[in-house]
Design goal:
The protein is an alpha+beta fold. It has three domains: 16-70 and 108-236 and 398-450, BirA Bifunctional Protein, domain 2 (2-Layer Sandwich), CATH 3.30.930.10; 251-378, YbaK protein (Alpha-Beta Complex); 469-567, Anticodon-binding domain (Rossmann fold). The chain is 28% helix and 28% strand. The chain contains 16 helices and 31 strands. Helix 2 runs antiparallel to helix 6. The longest helix has 21 residues, at 167-187. The protein is globular. The two termini are 28 Å apart.
């Protein structure tokens, strides 16, 4: 491909509305153009890279016996009514009415559509297991778009769905998909870690996320470098030693104007671990108090999952007053007509300091079972840096990551409500057991740049680079030798089926090199008077120091380097 005829546009200035590195580079390099908030057009450079990623995905899905299908972007509400998700999903799902008055929606995920397809075809255990996958456009009316392709409204997703007769078979296939995902990301040049995660709106019995470790990531990851324990903060656990001792007599203490754990601890000369905090939420028309040890924080994802709700809302002072709760001095002591959820840390510790439900007063030596009680004792705490690993006891590390893929054990969440069933060997009818496996293709593209590239320079892994090679001719009008040499090299690589972009434009060396940095081909060949005088072509591999290679040896050298770069991604 000749750059003089290519459809692209680079930008010198840094986009003012771009916050992440990948967003800036994709805009500046002429890969994407924003059309609306979270909606982008893909230019030819981006589409070439996306197609390479999609080809890798298809190859790995085919290796684990997947069959590619295509499900509709537009679906009737009636399909989602079967599972109840038409009502349950919030404003992120775009709903509309067609010309006949029928309620419709834009697909943000395709569990209902693929289950509908499965129940149409599958009726016997002999047809199971089977996996169906697609690469399809989806739309999620995301309220907070961010980072270019990292969090968007319209996106390309690879989603796959497996169907099984029992959970043992699902577990076996889940492992195959898990391994295939690691292979996909490795082939795309992206090192990922897999972590246990929250099932979220997908539901099911278990889930794993695949994370590209990056400071720009939105997810918090909890890792143990000794035993390999890995979990998203939403589900992570830590090993804690709680102080259990003889219960002391409770005692009210004056704490004038002191509401926070830090203030009270300092005033009474006690550690935050010896305190307890109470937080009150509104759950619909019901209020619920949650208590936790004072040095810990409530993990609202764990709490939402336990309560089986989507949104948590702090109770206002007016609501608290109805229950006799004093803001800043809340306590589970003598709590009436309010649901109480107790974190394990508060239930398993002794002689804690609590609010007194009385302005400017706290109570010392509060104990679960004597001073307050509840049947709902659960883990609703967040893990902190340096806490002990739940498996081996070593210190935990916290890092950030970008979610590039996720897999779920859906079980019968969709098949049972949609009556997707099969007949077993005895003729008994049973619900099909399902798994789900997703990769955001555009997000994967952007995540590769977040990890591999510099602030002003793209560095593509060779497997997904739009062009493996960029050839730059530094020729003036009179440099016929440079021009002819570059033309012959270009034809040589085209003949040998290399993916090559030839910058044959009449432009300054600086202009060409700046554009080459934004195009990001892993192999760069530069032909100029200087390189020819030094014996041949200047070659740079992955932005390393350039070397001079004889033109007669150039093909073999590039073949060798290309093979080496691909071998590193296996």
């Amino acid at each position: 491909m000749r750059l003089s005829k290519y459809f692209f546009k680079t930008i010198k200035e840094m986009p003012s509305d771009a916050d992440l590195k990948s967003h800036k580079l994709l805009i500046r390099g002429g890969y994407i153009k924003q059309v609306s908030a979270g909606i982008f057009s893909y230019l030819p450079l981006a589409l070439r890279a996306l197609h390479k990623i999609e080809r890798i995905i298809r190859e790995e899905m085919d290796k684990i016996d997947g069959y590619e299908v295509n499900l509709p972007v537009v679906m009737p509400a009636s399909l989602w009514n079967e599972t109840g998700r038409y009502q349950d999903v919030g404003e992120e799902m775009l709903r509309f009415t067609d010309r006949t008055g029928r309620k419709m929606l834009l697909g943000m995920t395709h569990e209902e559509a693929v289950t509908d397809m499965a129940r149409y075809v599958i009726n016997s255990y002999k047809q199971l297991p089977v996996m169906l996958y697609q690469l399809q456009t989806k739309f999620r009316d995301e309220p907070r778009v961010r980072g270019g392709l990292i969090r968007v409204r319209e996106f390309i997703m690879k989603d796959a769905y497996s169907f099984h007769t029992d959970y043992e078979d699902l577990d076996r296939y889940y492992k195959r998909a898990y391994d295939a995902y690691h292979k996909i990301f490795s082939r795309c040049g992206l090192n990922v870690i897999s972590v246990s995660s929250d099932v979220g709106m997908m539901g099911g019995t278990g889930a794993d996320e695949f994370m590209a470790v990056a400071e720009s990531g939105e997810d918090t990851l909890i890792l143990c470098e000794k035993c390999g324990y890995k979990a998203n903060r939403e589900v992570a656990k830590a090993k804690r030693n709680y102080k259990k001792e003889e219960m002391l007599k409770s005692e009210e203490v004056h704490t004038p104007g002191l509401k926070s754990i830090e203030e009270v601890s300092k005033f009474l000369k006690i550690s935050p671990e010896s305190t307890m905090k109470a937080v009150v939420y509104n759950i619909g028309k019901e209020a619920v108090m949650c208590v936790i040890r004072g040095d810990l924080e409530i993990n609202e994802t764990k709490l939402r999952n336990y309560l089986k709700i989507k949104v948590l809302q702090f109770s206002e002072e007016e609501e608290l007053n109805k229950y006799g709760i004093v803001p800043g001095f809340a306590s589970p002591i003598n709590l009436k007509k309010m649901r109480l959820i107790v974190d394990e840390s508060a239930a398993d510790s002794s002689n804690l300091l609590s609010g007194a439900n009385k302005k400017d007063y706290h109570v010392k030596n509060i104990n679960f079972g004597r001073d307050f009680t509840s049947k709902e004792v659960v883990d609703i705490s967040s893990v902190k840096e340096g806490e002990k690993c739940i498996k081996c006891g070593e210190k935990l590390k916290i890092t950030r990551g970008i979610e590039v893929g996720n897999i779920f054990k859906l079980g019968t969440k969709y098949s049972s409500t949609m009556k997707a069933r099969y007949l077993d060997e005895t003729g008994k009818e049973s619900d099909i057991i399902m798994g789900c496996y997703g990769i955001g293709v555009g997000r994967l593209l952007a995540s590769i740049l977040e990890v591999s590239s510099e602030d002003n320079k793209i560095s593509w892994p060779i497997s997904v680079a739009p062009f493996e090679i960029e050839l730059i001719a530094l020729a003036t009008e009179k440099d016929e030798n440079v021009k002819n040499t570059a033309e012959s090299i270009y034809e040589m690589f085209i003949t040998n089926d290399f993916s090559i972009l030839y910058d044959d434009r009449k432009a300054s060396p600086g202009f060409k090199f700046n554009d080459a940095d934004l195009i990001g081909s892993p192999l760069r060949i530069t032909i100029g008077t200087k390189s020819l005088n030094e014996g041949g072509a200047e070659v740079m591999v992955n932005n390393e120091k350039p070397i001079i290679i004889k033109t007669s040896e150039l093909m073999n050298f590039i073949k060798q380097k290309r093979d080496e770069l691909f071998s590193q991604l296996k």
